Each structure stands twice: as structure tokens, then as C-alpha cells.
Amino acid sequence: MSDDAHDQQIVHVIIVGGGIGGLFAANALIAHGLNVAVYEQAPAIGEIGAGVFLTPNSVRQLERVGLGAAVARCGARVGRESRYFRDDGTPIAPVQVTDSAGWNATFGMHRADVVEILSTALPPGVVHTGHRAIGFEQEGEVAKVRFANGAVAQGDVVVAADGIHSELRPFVFPPSRPVFSGSVSYRGLVAHARIAPWPTDAWQMWLGKAKHFLAFPVRAGELINYVGFVPADAEMKESWSAPGDPAVLRREFAGWDARIARLLAQVETTFRWALYDREPLPTWTHGRLTLLGDAAHPMLPHLGQGANQAIEDGMALATILKRADRAGAPAALLAYERLRRERVAAVQREARENGLRYDSFYADLAVRDAEIAAHADFRRRLYDHDVVPDAQAVAASL
Ligand SMILES: Cc1cc2nc3c(=O)[nH]c(=O)nc-3n(C[C@H](O)[C@H](O)[C@H](O)COP(=O)(O)OP(=O)(O)OC[C@H]3O[C@@H](n4cnc5c(N)ncnc54)[C@H](O)[C@@H]3O)c2cc1C
């Protein structure tokens, strides 16, 4: 085949959304030799001041696109001192931080660092900021996205990685409202120097009635990320995200382990998020359009898997699309969806279940504690998963 004929066959992918899901997918697709353009609505690529926990199932994929060293450098690897505690500080159980082989690739990361690592790894010109997608259409072998600024992008495939409020999702499946969990999370970062000797290598969670509190290090331990999960009041139900009041946050956890009070005493600003997910979708794909990350499967944060699953999605998509030509791209998207839908739905469901454990909806706390300890098995299986061999098998059968 001549170079021109070969280039004609390379699938051109348009990704809408430059969050962790869209940017990782772009890296994975480029590593597999596809043409990619990313369109992000914000005027610049960036993220909120909060943490995200990366686990071996996604770090394995970040390593495959050459980003493992950057993650290890910018992150904070958490280790064997990671623990669950009762609200009074009594230890419950260790936290699973490795896969079954004992590979410790669990990192607390600043979200901005993850986005920076992913976006700077892309060749210049791939990311187009200031493009808010407002429409999608497809005809024959052409898929088009329309943007609010009047631009139109044209490709063989469109990947909607535009988050829980996805603008493109209704082109795949009828619109529906996300499901409110009844909880909100207060999130933020505290300089480690202000709370030293707080551990810089431990993921720690405290569990109490209808609330739980999480802290883990990010940025090589310079900062400690905290998240306080509490029941929502009426006002919070109305807003997806809004500045929170540190004094209210401190009151929510008054009387808990003194370590929490010491950390919260240093909080000057905090942000709160209402926690929503969606029921698993019966389909993610319509012709040349497919969904990825939170656009496909928003989940509650009680397994810390939303971003990790988005990264698995991106690697699966790239592995499968690499084997497709332009005419075969829709079949490849359906194969990607089939491979991912069941695993992600199981993680979505388990995130809900785990939230009930974390919020201690149990008459007998000893039962909760036993379940928390036993949950390490689920995490080992989650972390052992490597999406690539399965995706290769699917691609080979196309
Ligand atoms: C409290 C909390 C804690 C969490 N902790 C973890 C954790 O520890 N580990 C983990 O794995 N996950 C965690 N998550 C989940 C994780 O944050 C999400 O699952 C993940 O960020 C999803 O990435 P995404 O790229 O799919 O979507 P998003 O991060 O929402 O990115 C979507 C992007 O699309 C852009 N966009 C939206 N609409 C348009 C449009 N019309 N046109 C163009 N661009 C558009 C947005 O600006 C954004 O940049 C947590 C979530 C919460 C709420």
C-alpha cells in the first residue's frame, strides 16, 4: 500500500472533552498510530484543586503510554500504613494498596498534575480549547461535531468524553437525570508542613454514621488531600458544586478522631460537590459516536474509580480502533462498548454498595468492620485487571 493509501485508511478520531478521560484516550490513540483532535470547552486545560487516587489497573495503562515515571514523580505512593478507622480513631483494617502480585502502584495525585502530565505528552496542535460542543451529526462515513463558536470538526469517529453532564450523550441515548446520592463532599488541600508529622505515604479513611472522612497525600507528599462526605441539606441539593464553609465542615466532624480536627483546623477554603451517578446505560454507541469516562458511566467516588475506569476505557478503545479501518470503525466502537459496559457497570454498582459501608448503615458496627476488611479481595481483583489482553482478543475477532 502506498503512504497516501495508508494515510487514507488511518482512522481520524475527534474527542470532545479534555478531562482525564479525553486526554488519556488521546495519548493512547496516538500511541496506537491514530489521528486525534481533542476539543475542550474551557479556555485552557486545567483542573480543580483536589486530589484523585490512581490505582494499579490504570497506572498499568499510563505506563504503557510512557507516563509511569511522570506519575511516580508527581504523585505520592501510598503504602502499608494505609488504614480504615472508626470515627473515634480505632483502627479497623488495612487498605489494599497493591494488586495480587504485590505491585504497589497506588498514587495520590493532584488533579491538575494528572491533567498536566496527560496534556503535555500530546503533540502540539492536538488540543483545541475554547470549543464547546453543541451538536453532532453523521452521514455515510463522516461524523461531525458543531461547536458554540461556529466551528465544525469532521472525522471518522467521535468520542464524547465530556463528563457527567455530557452534551453529546443524548445523541446516543435519550436524556435522563443523574441520580442524587443524598451526600455531598467537601474537598480541598492542606500544605503538609502545616500538619506535620501527618504521614506522607498513607491513604486513611474514618467511618461514622452517615459520614466519612478521607485523607491522602498528593504531589510527593507536599500537600494532603482531604474529602469529607456528609448528608446534603436542602440548599446543597440545588447546586452541583459551590464554595463550602470551613466552619461548617469542622462542625460536621466535631468529636471525631483528634487527627481530623487538627487537619481541618488548617482549612481556609473548601469546595463542596453534590454526589451523583447514573444507572448503567444499555448502550454507549450510535454509529460513529461513542461515550467514554463519566459521559458513559458516572459513578459515586466510594471506590475512587471514576478516573481509573476512564483510563481503562481509553486503552480499550485505542487497542480496538487500531485494528479498524474507516469503514469498520462503527463495528469497532460497538466492540469497545461490549467489552467495557459490563465491567464498568459492576464498578458503578459496587461504588454505591461501598458508600453504604463507608456511611455505616449497619445496626452492628462489627459487621461493617468485617465487610471493610473483607473488601480487600474485591480491590485486588479490581487492581489485577489489565484491559489490554481482553481488548486485543476483541480486536482480533473484528
Ligand atoms: C469527590 C470525588 C472524588 C473522586 N475521587 C476519585 C478518585 O480518587 N479516583 C478516581 O478514579 N476518580 C475519582 N473521582 C471521579 C473522577 O473525578 C471522574 O470520574 C473523572 O474525572 C471523569 O473524567 P472525565 O474525563 O470522564 O470527565 P470530566 O473530568 O468531567 O471531564 C470532562 C471534560 O469535558 C469538558 N466538557 C464538558 N462539556 C463539554 C462540551 N460540551 N464541549 C467540550 N468540552 C466539554 C469539561 O470542561 C471537562 O474538561 C472522584 C469524583 C468526586 C466527585
Which word captures the global form? globular
Radius of gyration: 21 Å
Helix content: 25-40%
Q: Quick check: average pLDDT?
A: 95
Strand sequence of the main sheet, in spatial order? Answer: 6-5-14-15-16-13-18-17
Report the CATH topology name: FAD/NAD(P)-binding domain
The rounded distance between the terminal residues' Cα atoms is: 21 Å
In this entry the ligands are:
flavin-adenine dinucleotide
Give unreliable regions as ranges.
none
Q: What is the CATH level 1 assignment? A: Alpha Beta
Beta-strand portion reads 25-35%
The description of the largest β-sheet is:
8 strands, mixed
> How many discrete domains?
1
Output the structural class: alpha+beta
Count of alpha/pi helices: 13
From the 3D coordinates, which CATH architecture would you assign? 3-Layer(bba) Sandwich
The H-level CATH homologous superfamily, spelled out, is FAD/NAD(P)-binding domain
Features:
alpha+beta, globular, 26% strand, binds flavin-adenine dinucleotide, 13 helices, FAD/NAD(P)-binding domain, six-stranded mixed β-sheet, 20 strands, 398 residues, eight-stranded mixed β-sheet
Task: Give the secondary structure arrangement, pairings included.
Layout: H1 3-9, E1 12-16, H2 20-31, E2 35-39, E3 51-54, H3 56-64, H4 68-74, E4 76-77, E5 83-86, E6 91-94, E7 107-110, H5 111-120, E8 127-128, E9 133-139, E10 142-147, E11 152-155, E12 157-160, E13 179-191, E14 204-208, E15 211-218, E16 223-231, H6 234-238, E17 241-244, H7 246-252, H8 258-264, E18 270-277, E19 285-286, E20 289-291, H9 306-321, H10 329-358, H11 365-374, H12 376-384, H13 387-396
Parallel strand pairs: 1-2, 1-12, 2-8, 5-14, 12-20
Antiparallel strand pairs: 3-7, 4-7, 5-6, 9-10, 10-11, 13-16, 13-18, 14-15, 15-16, 17-18, 19-20
Helix pairs in contact: 2-5, 2-9, 3-9, 9-10, 9-13, 10-13
The protein binds flavin-adenine dinucleotide (FAD).
Flavin-adenine dinucleotide (FAD) binds at residues 16-22, 39-42, 52-53, 131-133, 161-163, 167, 185, 187, 227, 273, 293-295, 301, 304-308, 310.
